[in-house]
# Entry
Amino acid sequence: MTFTLISRNFLVKVFIVLLPWKLKRFFLSKLFGYNIHQTANIGLAWIYPRHLVMHAGSTIGSFSVAVNLDLVKLDVCASIGRSNWITGFPTGTNSLHFLHQTDRHAELHLGDHSAISKCHHIDCTNVVSIGSYSTIAGYRTQILTHSIDILSNRQHSEPITIGDFSFVGTNCVLLGGSALPSCSILGALSLLNKLHSDEYTLYAGQPASNIKKLDKNSGYFSRPVGFVY
# Structure
């Protein structure tokens, strides 16, 4: 009976993915309780977190996947591009994983006008927060909130924070517990492995370090619309 129920639920999800957007939004709202603004949009994508909130003008592109999450939340005009793989490890399960972290949440938050481009891997075993007007650019960046704690021999997770008006270059790696401050840039191919705090700064390298200060009058840091033409 359990196998039949799982198969039925899977087929329902497949059916919804293939529907035109207005019908897809209707069924996602009615069957899954998702909160999706009428001007938001999801393409041909497998988006099934426990909770989904999409504010006005937010979008998720085709061929993206978001599963095993407590929450995915996109604020006004935030966007997730195509072919992104977004996973986590939801709370409230019977698994032995992460039992020592009672305050953990498997969530992805995107601020107003923030953007994840395409072909990235985002592990939201713990909270990944991307600030307003920030961009995960290029391809193949990995945001990894969990790993093995060698000392205690167990899986452990830490949140990752990207501030407002920040920019992550192509093919970077961000590890749990790291933070990119607001109005900062993480250079291409960099490894962010700790919490940084200096704003208006270029960070780069493996591991990333403070390279130079940035001009506070740069147009990127004050643009009124997230998309850059």
